[in-house]
Amino acid sequence: MPPIVSIENLSKVYASGLHALKDVNLAIDKGEIFALLGPNGAGKSTLINTVCGIVTPSSGTIRVGGHDNRSDYRAARRMIGLVPQELTTDAFEKVWDTVSFSRGLFGLGKNPDHIERVLKDLSLYEKRDNRIMQLSGGMKRRVLIAKALAHEPQVLFLDEPTAGVDVELRQDMWRLVRRLRDQGVTVILTTHYIEEAEEMADRVGVIRKGEIILVEDKVELMRKLGKKQLTLHLAEPLAALPESLAGYALHLGPGGREIVYTYDTQRERTGITRLLTDLAAAGIGFTDLDTQQSSLEEIFVDLVRGHTGAAP
User: Fold this and answer.
1) Which tens digits make up the pLDDT trace of 1-35?
2) The pTM is what?
3) Is 227-293 in CATH node 3.40.1000?
4) 281 near 244, Cβ under 8 Å?
Protein backbone atom coordinates (compact mmCIF):
# COMPACT_ATOMS: atom_id res chain seq x y z
CA MET A 1 0.00 0.00 0.00
CA PRO A 2 1.48 3.41 -0.96
CA PRO A 3 2.07 5.93 1.85
CA ILE A 4 -0.76 8.34 2.55
CA VAL A 5 1.74 11.22 2.84
CA SER A 6 4.76 11.23 0.53
CA ILE A 7 7.37 14.00 0.68
CA GLU A 8 10.24 14.00 -1.80
CA ASN A 9 13.26 16.31 -1.98
CA LEU A 10 11.38 19.09 -0.20
CA SER A 11 13.21 22.36 0.44
CA LYS A 12 12.12 25.80 1.60
CA VAL A 13 14.29 28.91 1.43
CA TYR A 14 12.75 32.18 2.61
CA ALA A 15 13.51 35.57 1.05
CA SER A 16 15.70 36.35 4.05
CA GLY A 17 17.97 33.47 3.04
CA LEU A 18 16.81 31.21 5.86
CA HIS A 19 17.00 27.59 4.68
CA ALA A 20 14.08 26.26 6.74
CA LEU A 21 13.83 22.83 5.05
CA LYS A 22 16.67 20.98 3.34
CA ASP A 23 15.93 18.14 0.93
CA VAL A 24 13.37 16.45 3.19
CA ASN A 25 12.22 12.94 2.23
CA LEU A 26 9.52 11.31 4.30
CA ALA A 27 6.82 8.66 3.79
CA ILE A 28 4.01 8.23 6.32
CA ASP A 29 1.70 5.22 6.24
CA LYS A 30 -2.05 5.18 6.55
CA GLY A 31 -3.30 4.66 10.09
CA GLU A 32 -0.05 5.32 11.94
CA ILE A 33 0.77 7.86 14.64
CA PHE A 34 3.94 9.65 13.60
CA ALA A 35 5.71 11.95 16.05
CA LEU A 36 7.93 14.68 14.61
CA LEU A 37 10.44 15.86 17.20
CA GLY A 38 12.92 18.68 17.06
CA PRO A 39 14.13 21.72 19.01
CA ASN A 40 12.59 25.16 18.52
CA GLY A 41 13.39 26.49 15.06
CA ALA A 42 14.21 23.04 13.66
CA GLY A 43 11.56 23.28 10.93
CA LYS A 44 8.66 21.28 12.41
CA SER A 45 5.95 23.87 11.84
CA THR A 46 7.37 24.84 8.43
CA LEU A 47 7.18 21.21 7.33
CA ILE A 48 3.59 20.85 8.53
CA ASN A 49 2.51 24.14 6.96
CA THR A 50 4.14 23.19 3.66
CA VAL A 51 2.32 19.86 3.53
CA CYS A 52 -0.94 21.66 4.34
CA GLY A 53 -0.36 24.17 1.54
CA ILE A 54 0.03 27.18 3.83
CA VAL A 55 3.72 27.62 2.94
CA THR A 56 4.89 27.30 -0.68
CA PRO A 57 7.95 25.06 -1.07
CA SER A 58 11.01 26.19 -2.97
CA SER A 59 11.41 22.73 -4.51
CA GLY A 60 10.24 19.16 -4.11
CA THR A 61 6.91 17.36 -4.24
CA ILE A 62 4.24 16.48 -1.68
CA ARG A 63 1.42 14.01 -2.20
CA VAL A 64 -1.43 13.35 0.19
CA GLY A 65 -3.51 10.31 -0.64
CA GLY A 66 -1.90 10.35 -4.08
CA HIS A 67 -2.90 13.99 -4.73
CA ASP A 68 -0.16 16.52 -5.45
CA ASN A 69 -0.64 19.35 -2.96
CA ARG A 70 0.12 22.00 -5.59
CA SER A 71 -1.40 20.78 -8.86
CA ASP A 72 -4.33 19.09 -7.08
CA TYR A 73 -4.50 21.28 -4.01
CA ARG A 74 -8.21 20.99 -3.22
CA ALA A 75 -8.22 17.19 -3.20
CA ALA A 76 -5.04 17.03 -1.12
CA ARG A 77 -6.21 19.63 1.38
CA ARG A 78 -9.59 17.95 1.71
CA MET A 79 -7.83 14.94 3.22
CA ILE A 80 -6.05 17.01 5.88
CA GLY A 81 -7.16 18.30 9.26
CA LEU A 82 -4.82 20.80 10.93
CA VAL A 83 -4.69 21.85 14.57
CA PRO A 84 -2.28 24.82 14.65
CA GLN A 85 -0.34 26.08 17.65
CA GLU A 86 -2.08 29.45 17.66
CA LEU A 87 -5.65 29.99 18.82
CA THR A 88 -7.28 31.43 15.69
CA THR A 89 -11.04 31.50 16.08
CA ASP A 90 -13.75 34.16 15.78
CA ALA A 91 -14.42 35.25 19.37
CA PHE A 92 -18.08 36.09 18.64
CA GLU A 93 -18.99 32.79 16.95
CA LYS A 94 -20.78 30.02 18.80
CA VAL A 95 -19.00 26.69 19.16
CA TRP A 96 -21.52 24.72 17.08
CA ASP A 97 -21.56 27.31 14.32
CA THR A 98 -17.78 27.64 13.94
CA VAL A 99 -17.27 23.87 13.83
CA SER A 100 -20.10 23.40 11.32
CA PHE A 101 -18.74 26.24 9.18
CA SER A 102 -15.36 24.52 8.99
CA ARG A 103 -17.07 21.49 7.47
CA GLY A 104 -18.73 23.68 4.84
CA LEU A 105 -15.38 25.16 3.82
CA PHE A 106 -14.50 21.79 2.31
CA GLY A 107 -17.70 21.62 0.28
CA LEU A 108 -19.38 19.05 2.49
CA GLY A 109 -23.06 19.06 3.34
CA LYS A 110 -24.39 19.44 6.84
CA ASN A 111 -23.98 16.45 9.14
CA PRO A 112 -25.26 17.34 12.61
CA ASP A 113 -24.69 13.79 13.87
CA HIS A 114 -20.97 13.98 13.03
CA ILE A 115 -20.58 17.44 14.59
CA GLU A 116 -22.38 16.25 17.72
CA ARG A 117 -20.10 13.19 17.92
CA VAL A 118 -16.95 15.32 17.61
CA LEU A 119 -18.12 17.81 20.25
CA LYS A 120 -19.02 15.02 22.66
CA ASP A 121 -15.66 13.30 22.10
CA LEU A 122 -13.95 16.55 23.12
CA SER A 123 -16.29 17.30 26.04
CA LEU A 124 -17.55 20.37 24.17
CA TYR A 125 -21.16 19.44 23.60
CA GLU A 126 -22.42 21.24 26.71
CA LYS A 127 -20.68 24.38 25.44
CA ARG A 128 -22.09 24.16 21.92
CA ASP A 129 -24.14 27.36 22.27
CA ASN A 130 -21.37 29.35 24.00
CA ARG A 131 -19.47 32.02 22.14
CA ILE A 132 -15.73 31.39 21.76
CA MET A 133 -14.93 34.43 23.93
CA GLN A 134 -16.71 32.74 26.84
CA LEU A 135 -14.44 29.71 26.82
CA SER A 136 -11.27 29.03 28.76
CA GLY A 137 -7.96 28.59 26.92
CA GLY A 138 -8.25 24.81 27.18
CA MET A 139 -11.78 24.84 25.78
CA LYS A 140 -10.66 27.04 22.88
CA ARG A 141 -7.98 24.46 22.11
CA ARG A 142 -10.69 21.79 22.02
CA VAL A 143 -12.63 23.91 19.51
CA LEU A 144 -9.58 23.99 17.21
CA ILE A 145 -9.42 20.22 17.31
CA ALA A 146 -13.15 19.95 16.61
CA LYS A 147 -12.80 22.31 13.62
CA ALA A 148 -9.96 20.16 12.25
CA LEU A 149 -12.13 17.03 12.51
CA ALA A 150 -15.33 18.58 11.15
CA HIS A 151 -14.72 17.48 7.55
CA GLU A 152 -13.67 13.91 8.49
CA PRO A 153 -10.02 14.13 7.35
CA GLN A 154 -7.86 11.07 6.68
CA VAL A 155 -4.70 12.82 7.89
CA LEU A 156 -4.67 14.88 11.10
CA PHE A 157 -1.79 17.25 11.88
CA LEU A 158 -1.43 18.24 15.52
CA ASP A 159 1.13 21.03 15.95
CA GLU A 160 2.00 21.18 19.65
CA PRO A 161 -1.64 20.35 20.46
CA THR A 162 -1.29 20.06 24.24
CA ALA A 163 1.17 22.89 24.90
CA GLY A 164 -0.06 24.87 27.87
CA VAL A 165 -3.34 23.00 28.31
CA ASP A 166 -4.80 21.21 31.31
CA VAL A 167 -4.21 17.55 32.10
CA GLU A 168 -7.87 16.70 31.42
CA LEU A 169 -7.66 17.99 27.85
CA ARG A 170 -4.40 16.15 27.31
CA GLN A 171 -6.02 12.88 28.38
CA ASP A 172 -9.09 13.56 26.21
CA MET A 173 -6.79 14.33 23.29
CA TRP A 174 -4.88 11.08 23.49
CA ARG A 175 -8.02 9.00 23.91
CA LEU A 176 -9.37 10.66 20.77
CA VAL A 177 -6.09 10.11 18.90
CA ARG A 178 -6.18 6.40 19.70
CA ARG A 179 -9.77 6.15 18.47
CA LEU A 180 -8.92 7.97 15.25
CA ARG A 181 -5.94 5.71 14.63
CA ASP A 182 -8.19 2.68 15.17
CA GLN A 183 -10.52 4.12 12.51
CA GLY A 184 -7.65 4.35 10.01
CA VAL A 185 -6.86 8.06 10.40
CA THR A 186 -3.17 8.97 10.16
CA VAL A 187 -2.03 11.28 12.97
CA ILE A 188 1.12 13.39 12.65
CA LEU A 189 2.07 15.37 15.70
CA THR A 190 4.77 17.63 17.01
CA THR A 191 5.13 17.88 20.75
CA HIS A 192 7.39 19.16 23.49
CA TYR A 193 5.97 16.49 25.79
CA ILE A 194 8.28 13.75 24.64
CA GLU A 195 6.78 11.27 27.09
CA GLU A 196 3.57 11.55 25.06
CA ALA A 197 5.40 10.67 21.87
CA GLU A 198 7.01 7.76 23.73
CA GLU A 199 3.60 6.50 24.79
CA MET A 200 1.59 7.20 21.63
CA ALA A 201 3.76 7.15 18.51
CA ASP A 202 4.29 4.19 16.21
CA ARG A 203 7.25 5.89 14.53
CA VAL A 204 9.43 8.87 15.39
CA GLY A 205 11.14 11.36 13.11
CA VAL A 206 13.73 13.83 14.33
CA ILE A 207 14.33 17.09 12.48
CA ARG A 208 17.34 19.32 13.11
CA LYS A 209 18.18 22.55 11.28
CA GLY A 210 15.66 21.75 8.54
CA GLU A 211 16.93 18.22 7.91
CA ILE A 212 15.35 14.90 8.85
CA ILE A 213 18.19 13.17 10.66
CA LEU A 214 16.34 10.03 11.66
CA VAL A 215 13.08 8.17 11.04
CA GLU A 216 12.62 4.98 12.99
CA ASP A 217 10.04 2.71 14.56
CA LYS A 218 9.84 3.90 18.16
CA VAL A 219 10.56 0.53 19.74
CA GLU A 220 13.44 -0.12 17.36
CA LEU A 221 14.83 3.37 17.95
CA MET A 222 14.93 2.83 21.69
CA ARG A 223 16.51 -0.59 21.17
CA LYS A 224 19.19 0.72 18.83
CA LEU A 225 20.09 3.99 20.49
CA GLY A 226 18.99 3.41 24.04
CA LYS A 227 21.46 2.62 26.78
CA LYS A 228 20.85 0.91 30.05
CA GLN A 229 22.09 1.79 33.50
CA LEU A 230 22.80 -0.78 36.16
CA THR A 231 22.60 0.69 39.68
CA LEU A 232 24.22 -1.28 42.51
CA HIS A 233 23.11 -0.32 46.02
CA LEU A 234 26.18 -0.84 48.21
CA ALA A 235 26.29 -2.64 51.54
CA GLU A 236 28.83 -0.09 52.81
CA PRO A 237 29.40 3.43 51.42
CA LEU A 238 32.60 4.13 49.45
CA ALA A 239 34.68 7.28 49.67
CA ALA A 240 36.05 6.64 46.17
CA LEU A 241 36.12 3.95 43.51
CA PRO A 242 39.19 1.72 43.50
CA GLU A 243 41.65 2.04 40.60
CA SER A 244 41.00 -1.57 39.63
CA LEU A 245 37.54 -0.54 38.38
CA ALA A 246 38.67 2.45 36.34
CA GLY A 247 38.07 0.66 33.03
CA TYR A 248 34.29 0.52 33.58
CA ALA A 249 33.69 4.30 33.66
CA LEU A 250 31.56 3.88 36.76
CA HIS A 251 29.77 6.69 38.56
CA LEU A 252 29.67 6.85 42.35
CA GLY A 253 26.29 8.05 43.56
CA PRO A 254 25.42 10.49 46.39
CA GLY A 255 27.01 9.61 49.68
CA GLY A 256 28.98 6.83 48.01
CA ARG A 257 26.04 4.47 48.56
CA GLU A 258 25.54 3.35 44.96
CA ILE A 259 27.55 2.60 41.83
CA VAL A 260 26.06 3.30 38.41
CA TYR A 261 27.27 1.40 35.35
CA THR A 262 26.08 2.51 31.88
CA TYR A 263 26.29 -0.03 29.08
CA ASP A 264 25.30 -0.33 25.43
CA THR A 265 22.48 -2.82 24.85
CA GLN A 266 23.74 -3.49 21.30
CA ARG A 267 27.09 -4.89 22.32
CA GLU A 268 27.54 -8.62 22.26
CA ARG A 269 28.75 -8.50 25.85
CA THR A 270 27.46 -6.02 28.43
CA GLY A 271 30.39 -6.51 30.80
CA ILE A 272 28.09 -6.94 33.79
CA THR A 273 29.33 -10.42 34.74
CA ARG A 274 32.95 -9.27 34.64
CA LEU A 275 32.06 -6.14 36.64
CA LEU A 276 30.40 -8.17 39.39
CA THR A 277 33.44 -10.44 39.56
CA ASP A 278 35.79 -7.47 39.86
CA LEU A 279 33.58 -5.84 42.52
CA ALA A 280 33.78 -9.02 44.60
CA ALA A 281 37.57 -9.13 44.14
CA ALA A 282 37.76 -5.53 45.38
CA GLY A 283 35.76 -6.47 48.47
CA ILE A 284 32.72 -4.35 47.46
CA GLY A 285 29.38 -5.89 48.38
CA PHE A 286 25.90 -4.72 47.39
CA THR A 287 22.43 -5.28 48.79
CA ASP A 288 20.33 -4.72 45.68
CA LEU A 289 20.52 -3.76 42.02
CA ASP A 290 18.19 -2.37 39.37
CA THR A 291 18.34 -1.37 35.72
CA GLN A 292 16.93 1.60 33.81
CA GLN A 293 16.48 2.00 30.05
CA SER A 294 17.13 5.33 28.32
CA SER A 295 13.95 7.29 27.72
CA LEU A 296 12.97 8.66 24.32
CA GLU A 297 13.71 12.12 25.71
CA GLU A 298 17.32 11.20 26.47
CA ILE A 299 17.75 9.68 23.01
CA PHE A 300 16.21 12.81 21.43
CA VAL A 301 18.55 15.14 23.34
CA ASP A 302 21.55 13.11 22.21
CA LEU A 303 20.38 13.20 18.60
CA VAL A 304 19.81 16.94 18.37
CA ARG A 305 23.13 17.60 20.05
CA GLY A 306 24.83 15.30 17.56
CA HIS A 307 26.08 12.86 20.18
CA THR A 308 25.00 9.70 18.36
CA GLY A 309 26.08 8.12 15.13
CA ALA A 310 22.60 8.63 13.66
CA ALA A 311 23.11 12.33 13.11
CA PRO A 312 25.04 13.52 10.05
Assistant:
1) 789 999 999 999 999 999 999 999 999 999 999 99
2) 0.72
3) no
4) yes
